[in-house]
Amino acid sequence: MITESVRPVTNCRVCGASDWQDVVSFGDVPLANAFLEPADSYEDEPAYPLGVISCRSCRLMSVTHVVDPEVMYRTYSYVTSDSETITRHMEFIATTCGERVGLAAGDLVVELGSNTGQQLAAFARHGARVLGVDPARNLAAVANERGVHTLPEFFTETTAGDVHRSHGRARLILGRHVFAHIDDLAGVLAGVRALLAPDGVFAIEVPYAMDLLEKYAFDTIYHEHLSYFLVRTLDTLFARYGLKLLDVERLPVHGGSLLVLVGRPEAGRPVTGTVGELIAAEERAELGSDAAYREFARGVRVVREELSALVRSLLAEGNRVAGYGASAKGTTILNICGLGADEMAYCTDTTALKQGKVLPGTHIPVRSPGHARNDPPDVYLMLAWNYADEILRKEADFLRSGGRFILPFPKPAVISADTAR
Ligand code: TMP
Ligand code: ZN
Fold it and tell me: Which of 35, 79, 81 to mutate to test the pocket of ligand 1 (most atoms within 8 A of CB)?
């Protein structure tokens, strides 16, 4: 553990309380996206405590420790997927948000955590003026090359003020799967208030804690994901910082997410019925009680043991096992289940930045899909299970020739050509 880059969470970043329930603890784990060059020894590889606690006041689920964002994000190896699933989803976001905000040609759309600019490019095709803000200097450079103007910065009140002066107010501020990575919510929401047009909308996409709790998908717990939100928690958060939760929509993307629309209370935009309906569903499922988090911890323990036992029994029968998708979730589940280079032949991944490197912690090599097709395993552990349908379609030949996949959640299961949908 490198103490100067990590600090334990004390007060809740949503409500300020400090009454936490311990939920799960995974020990010291390396950062999920910290891929390494192959080496003879990995002695100095940093690892940080990883676990989850739940705030008894607002029911935010938070990681136990926050790693310095300068360490995690200045050079970043997660490139937004160009899978069919995500390409379609980005078009959906551009259309839905465009309609809900009433975007006109030339209106400014600002995205935080805009990565390589793929989502903003979709808004630009719809006629918006776009600006990205992303601290990853390597990715901001890629976005700028493709013509999506991107500032290589964290989104703070200062950055928001600079953007306001240089570009005017934003009718839409968007944060896709970045909001749960932010520790200083007060600072970011102050920035949103400074930059948002009077009738503008702040739209975020976050993993939904209800899905996490129901599916036991503990591999979405890694150091970058600081917060796992319920709708009731989001409602508390935005009210506290002078904004208003207007709408939530459940989406299948990334294993179960929420698209959340937020506005200024004084703009008088209506609140949709889904907000109250989902808060009521959370109450019915008693997600405000300690028991729900104890049940989650039990489910996590069971999946962890069963998955590890399943892989080991397949290996004992003489099968070769490899990972499919060197996703951050994948590096997490392998570390947490103790599955390393002795068990997994390799992980295949489409991201050029990851190929030729080794996974953090387990040091399993990352291979290109071409390499994997020439040297297929008997069984793939599905590490990018959020794209399972797309991947099973793509790998129909592998399945037809007798190959199998393990799907980890909510209960580890082996699927073959006979059982694949
Ligand atoms: P994500 O779930 O964070 O988007 O990451 C998915 C990872 O899986 C990413 O590294 C790309 C990889 N991947 C493949 O290797 N093959 C595929 O067919 C898909 C859809 C993803
Ligand atoms: Zn709280």
Answer: 81
Buried b (16+ CB within 10 A) or exposed e, 57-68: bbbbbbbbbbbe
104, with CB counted inside 10 A (0-12, 13-18, 19+), is exposed
Please check whether residue 119 is in contact with residue 178, taking contact to mean a CB–CB distance below 8 angstroms: no
**Three-class secondary structure of residue 176 per DSSP:** strand
Please identify, by atom number, the ligand 1 atom nearest to the C-alpha of residue 84. 20
Tens of pLDDT, residues 25-62: 999 999 999 999 999 999 999 999 999 999 999 999 99
Close Cβ partners of 136 (under 8 Å, ≥ 6 residues apart)? 73, 74, 75, 76, 115, 152
CA 339 to CA 331: how far, in whole Å? 10
DSSP-H helix ranges across 146-272: 157-167, 185-195, 209-215, 231-240
Mutation pick for ligand 1 pocket among 327, 347, 357, 366 (CB with most ligand atoms within 8 Å): 327
Question: Which tens digits make up the pLDDT trace of 350-409?
Answer: 999 899 999 999 999 999 999 999 999 999 999 999 999 999 999 999 999 999 999 999
Describe the chain by its helix, strand, coil percentages, rounded to 5: 40, 25, 35
pTM of this prediction exceeds 0.85: yes
Helix (H, G, I), strand (E, B) or coil at 131: strand
d(CA 333, ligand 2 centre) in Å: 27
CB 5 near ligand 1, within 6 Å: no
> In whole angstroms, what is the distance from residue 227 CA to residue 99 CA?
28
List, in order, residues 6 or more apart from 178 with CB less than 8 Å away: 112, 113, 204
